[in-house]
Amino acid sequence: PAVVRGVDLVREYDRGAGGILRGGSTPSVRALDGVSIAVHSGEFVGIAGPSGSGKSTLLHLLAGLDVPTAGAVELAGEDIESYGERGRARLRLEHVGIVFQRFHLLPALSARANVALPLVELGRSKAERRERASALLEEVGLGDRMTHKPGQLSGGEQQRVAIARALVTEPELVVADEPTGELDSETSARVLSTLDDIADERAVVLASHDPQALETCDRLVRLRDGTRRRERAETELR
Length: 238
Ligand code: ADP
Ligand code: ADP
What we know:
The chain is of the alpha/beta class and about 240 residues long. The protein has helices spanning about 15-20, 55-60, 85-95, 110-120, 125-140, 155-165, 185-200, 210-215, and strands spanning about 1-10, 30-40, 45-50, 70-75, 80, 95-100, 175, 205, 220-225, 225-230.
């Protein structure tokens, strides 16, 4: 579902304090340098690497949230560069589910309404939204939490609501940025097992430095300073 070919991503800091401190020149950081990766349905891929190595940046490119400075990103067979901002938003809505470390649920809405939200954007009927959201909440083990608001749910439950929301459009690709970063290990295990199940029929890409999360993945892409490190055999990773 997603291919990244030889991408660079160079970010320019905005001309805030940094610009002034450096005498007005615009400092830039090469967040990614010639990275390639292809992810396929049925794969659970982990992106590993220390803080600042480019994990989030790569995930954002895979998800079409960002465009590369050089190189190409293909999402659902389409070169994202041939789309404008709005076209990419649509492509993302239809083909990618995104899970964040801090859940990003709307506090005023019930779990079911949060899950249904992407379908509102797609203009689906109320009946379909309700049915799909309910089915997904059942699937992630939250059938008894449909009308609870995020504030009434534990961290693990909120993350499973976020996962259900990521799945509601039936995306080929699900990306998760440090999905267990805020969770204890028992809760993490439950969230990881949910993601692992999802990877049976979709591509799941997880960025993390949590060893428990990385161990759950089928394959790892290791980053350091924005470049890919040589992959090691799976047994060496533990
Ligand atoms: P990771 O997810 O592995 O911690 P990131 O992809 O967030 O790494 O960051 C890669 C590089 O890009 C780092 O050097 C980081 O400082 C830089 N970076 C990340 N976000 C921004 C931003 N919004 N503006 C400028 N630089 C950024
Ligand atoms: P953190 O927990 O460190 O804030 P998150 O995983 O919650 O990180 O979010 C990662 C980044 O993605 C943040 O910079 C956040 O602003 C951005 N982000 C969150 N939600 C969205 C979204 N729906 N679309 C695009 N970017 C988002």
